[in-house]
Amino acid sequence: MNIRANALRMLAIDAVQAANSGHPGMPMGMADIAEVLWNRHLSHNPADPSWPNRDRFVLSNGHGSALLYALLHLTGYDLPIAELKRFRKLGSKTPGHPEVFVTPGVETTTGPLGQGLANAVGMALAERLLASEFNTAEHRIVDHYTYAFCGDGCLMEGVSHEACSLAGTWQLNKLIVFWDDNGISIDGQVDRWFSDDTPKRFEAYGWNVIRGIDGHDADAIDQAIVRAKTCASQPTLICCKTTIGMGSPNKAGSHEVHGAPLGVAEIAAVRDVLDWPYEPFVAPQEVAAQWDARECGNLLQSRWQSSFSAWMASNPEKAQEFMRRTSGHLPPGFDAHCEQMLNSWAKRTEAVATRKASQDAIAELASVLPEFLGGSADLTPSNLTNWPACQSIQPEGSGNYIHYGVREFGMAAIMNGLYLHGGFRPFAGTFLMFSDYARNALRMASLMRIAPIFVFTHDSIGLGEDGPTHQPIEQISTLRLIPNMDLWRPCDALETAVAWQEAVRHRNTPTCLVLSRQNLPVQPRNAKTVQEIHQGGYVLVCEPDGRQADVVLIATGSEVQLAVSASAQLAAQGLHARVVSMPSVQRFLSQPKAWQHQVLPPGIARVAVEAGATMLWRAFVGLDGAVVGIDTFGESGPANELAHHFGMTSEVVTKAAIGVIR
Question: How far apart are CA 552 and CA 599, in angstroms?
Fold first, then answer.
């Protein structure tokens, strides 16, 4: 066996053994494939992991992270051997599954199987679109491949179908995926639960499928990659037959080597089989030298930089735009544009659905954000995520609007890949009810601290006759529970504009925009109140001057109008209500305590109003407060009838307020 591949095997084995935890089987089985790809084909520079034109490598079967850490260490990334010795330890750069922005050279966080593959589809699409926009006949500034490793588990997960179907439709020929066909998963031989004809499946997607490659034959692997690169109009799946735990005399080919350390005795046996007499975590100098990619990487990037400089001389404005977008910065004058936008929108008086207000906001922001890349999961006429100047993407690479089809999970995971690649600010929509399909990709966006924008419309029983299958109840609350997720549920057009501006400004937080189907009235505000929307929660209706409020009514979205009406009803009874609009609970809770207490004065009774699950709001109103919400599933019927049926009326809010006051 190849000595360079054996260096990978042994570093992975040693790391797993030192941690007494991990997955040695996949690194041992895919080491030969990794050695060929990284030494003969991968264009990268360990000295600059953010080089825009590097090839992307995604380890979708992220449980094999020890393989990636061995690759990064040996090729010269800032990952010293001490970090491999700390594999899976708290605070190390070698966590149990790869984490982007933790380990230099890791492109995306993987572990939940299949999502890395979908991220890779997004990265390959980003490359295609940027190349179409910025390349010229003389200079190919954007010209790189996306490579992904995946296993049987990735292909069992439904997200792989959603994403790979789209990759075939989009003809992403610079996406090359290696299938680790080892026939083993945690429970044993997979043919008892995974009997798909995978090559035929991918051929049906429109992929170029290279079958029957011996995953331990370096020349066969190399030839397959060369063949894949000649394909002009299809992504490629290279089917690699491998032995899990290759090199282990007693455990290779079995599920025993999948997810547990080999043990001291078996590691000694592996060293004999591989003729590897070195101590743990040691690779001989001559092998380390063969792996070191720093000199080659610097040369590759230097050549690209020369081409980029020549292109920049002829295309200075394009070059500035390319650098701005790939660095993730907003354009000059963006804040001024936003201020002008809010001043204009503050004069609006027409009641509109917040989904329609969102569409208007998209159009205004897209005029200054060419990186906007919109889309929808086959609900464009309902989500209104398109705008007048948008164009559907085409296989050759033009366009800025993606029709994802009915693929919510794939859509969200592809958006994560688009964002991670750089150069685009992806957003896309579906019904709020179907956020459940996309949930894990939303969680991964939050975990990775990236900022795609998820647009969820039809946010309550207010959508009406479609009934309980489509009426969200618990979805808003559960999305708010995701750490680092910012959720905005605006009450009118102006709050919608602010929500979009805040979503765009933030680079380390994904955003859910939760929007209504039905028209909502414009709430009156002064200039000061307009600016306070950015705080996430603010006083929309004040108690009379010099009087203390008897009750604070907290509401979001379509229920703000109920709170405003209830405050008027209470005033008619001589009771003073403050109305707080809280479009973003997370943003409000991130404000200083002084602001929170200014908006929600301690010691005053509170009522929260939201057409959904009530539990979260108990933290705001306390044991003596009240929540007007819905803790059952919805019903099918006209929206106005449903509102009365479920008690989502101003009269019910007024009654609840009187109850907590007394």
Answer: 9
